[in-house]
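Students often ask why we bother encoding 3D structure as a string. The short answer is that it lets us treat folding as translation between two languages. Here is a chain of 193 residues written in the first language.
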Amino acid sequence: MKTKNKIVCLVGPSGVGKTSFAKRLVEKHNFVLPEVVTTRKPRIDDDKYYRYVSEDIFWALVNSRQFIEWDKYSDYYYGTLLDSLATLANDLSHSGVILDLTPTGCQKVKAIIPNAVVIALLPDDPVWLEQRLLSRNTQSAAEIKKRGDILHLYLSEISRLACEKVDVSFSPKTWDETFRKIESIILRQPVNG
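And here it is in the second language, the structure alphabet:
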């Protein structure tokens, strides 16, 4: 797929800060987020970019090839709509598109958009990740435990991706520095062609 804008894939475990850093890129650099379809229930802090559907509707979208990528994470399906991404990827009124992906979803996007910029956000200490998820109060203890159980597998999958890796600390004092690292990776990459 040819694009006029940068496509940036943020990959990392739940709670590492992908959404927070994506929002900063939207605010500071005029990036946009595509619509994501999911089978999970809405959360209080969800953004407008989610569309909530049943599994039947999700599978109908899969079978009709409506997604550029889709994956299952923690019992729920997530997918990025191809039409939404294609429209945003060629709209020059903004700087580019940010995708929040699993390693599998990232590989699917890279197969179609080889020049997509991939940045893996990794916790400098996986223990703080569970603490952060607990402090959110948006997930049940069972959901948090399940995410913790798959963390090591997930980090192993991320380590096999060809991408830039950025360590993220639990300390908010370091997040500005982390954001500057993310910015520098994105800004030095050419626009997709």
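Translate back mentally: The longest strand covers residues 67-73. Keep this in mind for the problem set.
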